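Board work, copied verbatim: acylphosphatase
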Amino acid sequence: MVWRVRGRVQGVGYRAFCQRQALGLGLKGWARNLPDGSVEVVAWGMSPALVALEERLRTGPRHAHVDAIEASMWRHEPADGFAVS
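↓ predict structure ↓
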């Protein structure tokens, strides 16, 4: 899955939060800041874990404020682990 998360999600530890959540759920993928201030999260794994991650992305870490999340399918399996860039 690919999520584009909008709101106050840069400079608040959102990507590190995504990494911790994803690894805890056994997912692999990445999270990266985009130039427009949003964060892109790509995750690959079992469907129940992806659903759980999306729920957590809607809340984010303590200082984040998520305004909107757009979800779409990811067609390629990312490398092992969960990277932050």
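The beta strands are 2-8, 28-33, 39-44, 65-72, 82-84.
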